[in-house]
Specification:
Blueprint: H1 8-15, H2 23-34, E1 40-43, E2 53-57, E3 62-67, H3 85-108, E4 112-117, H4 122-137
Parallel strand pairs: 3-4
Antiparallel strand pairs: 1-2, 2-3
Amino acid sequence: MRKLDTTDDVRARMSKQRSRDTGIEVALRRELHRLGLRYRVHQRPVRTVRREADVVFGPAKVAVFVDGCFWHGCPEHGTWPKRNGEFWRAKIETNQARDADTDRVLADAGWLAVRVWEHEDPAAAADRVREAVRARRDR
């Protein structure tokens, strides 16, 4: 029997996790639309960077990322699995480093990255995004 990074059950469960159009993404987009904002979905804000934002406001140069509490290490709800802990810690810390790098690259290109945690209230998150978009449009 070969050694696995994760058990077959965990692998099967994780492979079923949606990577786009999650419940919180859809709820956030619904709230943004209700507030009168129009946007693009799942696009690269900067074409030379192979990272896709969940919601993009092109003219205002605002890119919104909806981060899962587990996958991105939420300080409130993130957990460190006990089984295969080194693997998962490395995976989550790599995600966090990539998020920070993405925010830096976007800022260098004149964009604002807005991060929304999956546990956030969609209406409150949409208000925060609206304020960011307004501030960037009013410059």
